[in-house]
Specification:
14 helices, 549 residues, alpha+beta, 22% strand, five-stranded antiparallel β-sheet, nine-stranded mixed β-sheet
Amino acid sequence: MTRIERPLPQPTLASAEFWSSGADGVLRISHCADCGRYFHPPLPVCPSCRSRAVALAPVSGKAVVVGFSVNHQPWLPKFPPPYVVAVVALAEDDRARLTTNIVGCDPDGVSVGMRVRVRFEQLEEDVYAPLFEPDPEAADGPGPLPEPREVRARPMASSRKYEDRVALTGVGQSRVGRRLMVDPLSLTVDACLAAVADAGLDLDDVDGLSTYPGPSPDGMSEGGVTALTEALQLRPTWVNGAREVPGQIGSITAGMLAVAAGLCRHVLCFRTVWESSHAALLRSGRRQPDGGRATGMFEFRAPFGAMSAAQWIGCNASHYMHRYGVGREALGAIAVTARAGAARNPEALHRDPMTLDDYFDARMITTPFGLYDCDVPCDGAVAVVVSAVETAYDRPHAPVLVEAVGTAVLERLSWDQDTLTQLPQSRGPAAHLWTRTDLTPADVDVALLYDGFTFNALSWIEGLGFCGPGEATDFVAGGKTIALDGDLPLNPHGGQLSAGRLHGYGFVREAMLQLRGEATGRQVDDARVAVVTAGGGVPSGAMLLRNAK
């Protein structure tokens, strides 16, 4: 067998004891002496009672698989597939979970509910990776699964809505493609100039800038506010380039808040990706990957080959399918519907016809996701102008008004420690959204739902209340409901699954075009209200937009 070389974690002052605890073959997990809760990863405060009386404590090492994904994609050169990435819940407390590998059995034999026990692999001195294998001493039958936790948003803090003070007045997009090999800042400039012109403004009218995620070395940014300010020689009153906002479109929400507070009158919001060219440069050797040990959230994922959101979200999708007794049919319908939308969109990257048979025949990436469950990395930029509402009716196009925004964090900001039944952090923003409007899901004419993976869109459909938990397969009805002429047209432009991963902003652009009646070839009849979501996990955000009629 090929020996796996696992990426090494970088133990911190908080986690070093966890990584070294396997030296004697005993798993140790953070424990609260006051309320008895176990939790992971290590925190200085108990997440239940907020006691500071926390310390690592030995546990049995027995656990239950609550989600898993059999990985078939080579993410790491010395960690060959297939292998199983899993989330296991500890026997002592099912709220304490580890992302790990299931070893010692055929990957196809792993199932949700499988009872497992820990075994350790020493990676270096004082670093032991806790792996799990089938437990030969376990009781017959599957183990218990954590029950979904109810989320409930707070009522509005004030009857005055900031959403009422702003409007979206301009939108622009650069050229979009695979491996364009174009300076990403040039793409940003193209989109921003188009958005400002679309709003009928001059660059000197722009007094605010907002972007996501700011400078980033991995093909996910052009360099942020600093780079664009220099390129266009702007002089903004206010800027934002934060990463920790409610999804990628949280940068637009931040712009709304700046305008509503009176800091600015016109905020230029922008988002640029060049992942496709970045990957090509890495493969050619013209750009070197970041090295070093795994830090941040990857400290607890990279040692197990869990390098992609496809694997993390795949674990949740497997839990969903097990709990509700459904297959991949709804996911397939979402993928096929996206391709049908892309066929009507001349800007989309993948426009060739696709059938449900094509979907099921495609190669597996990481279960339950095949090739067409995953969005398409690309190069491109989108920009949106947020204006004070009193200026909006002087613009060349009818404004798009903001009915409500959902930003609440009602789940743990974690991929594996809280929500298992849906995409993490889709329920909180969805619940919050409806507290800020008298409209209901029945009022929505078109849905622009983040589809980094098909399961993301399914989670948003349920989270927003278009149907109940576990009911998406029946609701989607093989694609009939979400078709262009269905009750809830979904991503008419093709979404990220077929049009290209513009990382959230592409959904806002499509919503604006639909509400302005400008989505040529794919226009939803009489579209007055659109819901937009973004965030492939944590954190996330939602918007309810409407036209000015």
